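Notes to self after the call with IL:
- keep both proteins in one doc
- input above output, always
- annotate only the second one for now

Protein 1:
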Amino acid sequence: MRRITIASLALMGAASLAPAALADGREPGSLLVYPTVQSQLGVPAVFNVVSVTNTNRLGSGETDVHFEYVNVKAAGTPFLFADCVIADRVETLTPADTLSVLTSCHNGGASIAEPTVGYLVVSAMNPNEIDTYWSFNHLIGSEQVVSAAGGMYSLNAIPFLSAQADGADTDADQDGRRDFDGTEYEGIADELYIDSYVGALGGNLVLLSLTGGEYLTNVSFIIYNDDEFQLSAQYSFSCWTNTPLADISGFFTDLGLKTTVNDARELDITCDGLGDLETGWAIVRPTTALSITSANIANPAVLGALVNDVNPMFKNGRLLWESATKQFNGAFPN
């Protein structure tokens, strides 16, 4: 008899983090996006530390950094807009400086009653001018998430370079926003990829939209099982979402994948040549951003990550892979 233990699944979940963390060769930027952060005052269930580092080691390489926590209170239905409120503060990084903050202390929108969730944007600002974002492609960052039970994972921030000259104001069109248009900041990936998933492990998909304000963002999924069998799914959200994969489609579960034509040899975790668990991968393709009061927007800008926060002992997380093709209609605040 072949037995698949909970410990085996947990070890696989932890191991799935390592390749993404080691292979993530990103460049410093002028703006960093942390796709998921958690905060709670009092006795938090999660210890979430955000770090940002100034890699400029020159004597004149000081910068301010603007932390903007987008705190999200989900609506009761995806067809109502989520309540997304920004809490912000400014810090200063001297040359070769690094700053780490506990989000529960640093996020002004944190609550005692319940965890505050959402995402974080950190932007370089000119320390010699008021409210001026500037080209300072020297910022790197990451976050670490640790549960009270000892489970932990880390995620790199997603960096965006500015195309402006070093030290120049990035707000080229003077609209008060940071535009991911290839002029102010580099564009956002046209497609995202879940490089692999194990149906039995579950996990949550984090998505955030940087196109439109009160818009409903529609996303299409092209899903492949371990035998190249193509499946599909649709999902809609506003602002930011942290949604179990199983709620998006049954094809993200082991049971759902077993209903498809699949490879009988994958995934073998008992080393007997027979498949024990079902696996797959997926393309995440943003299609439209829908508005009640404004024109709809095609091909919205979306960022994402895959996390597992359900089991406090065996947490894991990784950024989604990104296409080389970019689109240029993203902005923050949007």
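Protein 2 (the one to annotate):
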Amino acid sequence: MQQYMVQIIKNLKEKGYRQLNPESNNVYGRADSDAVYIVVIGSNHNLDSETLKKFNNKILLDVSSDSHRKVNLLNILITPNGMFDDMTKKIVEELDNVWLFTEDYGKLYIFENQPTDFDSLYDVIDKKTVVDNRRSQHNLIRIFGVVTPILLLLNILVYVACIFVYQPTELAVEVLAISEKGQYYRFLTSMFTHFGIAHLVGNMVILIALGARVENIIGRFNYVIVYIATGLTASFASYIDCFYNNTYAYSAGASGAIFGLLGVLVVIAFYNKGRVKDLSLINMLILFILTLVNGKMSEGIDNVAHVAGFAAGIVAGIVLLLTNQKVVKNSRL
């Protein structure tokens, strides 16, 4: 209910309505030379007609005592859906100043005995509120993406599974398990496996920071392909390094795929003369270099996977810019 109430109040304020009492968050009004218009916004939950009548009469009495103009009052009750309960139906039957707004479809219901309009608010409430809400949802998608939260959830679920069901070493890249036992699924599962909460949180923070940006530019389908392809490239590179150099017993983490996303952004920034929205090419390259330096100075950080994922992301970014005009267009937005 909260999201629609906020939108309705916002639209009322744009039309000149003001909160009548700071202690009453749901009563708004405006006055012109001939009349005073009062709008009461609330929920139909456990609300009966007598309670609403008494509340309306109190408001009318308070406002009428301060003004000689005609006072008009409308109740907007927000309901979960269009399946109205008996108490709500009785309210509509006994009062002649009630509109019902449903949360499921963001739809305004006006019954035959109710005013078809009130201070020209019908279009404001019925259409603009839905448009504003859809715009708000679009902004959330633009900020967080659609695929990125799913990837975030997958990484968290795998981490939880590694606490209660598996050991991380059962899903990570491990030379003998792959070369001798044929457990090739580890190339994929290792992309979602982390050794400890710090490992998980560090990668997820960067995924949140970069993921939606890439998703909005290259599209959801391409984003999934790039994420998996660069992650698999990083896993395979790590396997080769471990096979020949015996670098690590196990390798896992989302960082290879994440650096693949960084590689895509670097290509797009280069194409856009050094920027992708609020990210600069220099800052992204500095991030990459600092990560490699940190990996060189620390134990347990697989720089081979980082470099391989980044390089695969560079290739993916170039291919997308050369073959997909939509990506070219979005990269300039």
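Annotation: The first strand starts at residue 18 and ends at 21. Residues 168 and 183 are 14 Å apart (CA to CA).
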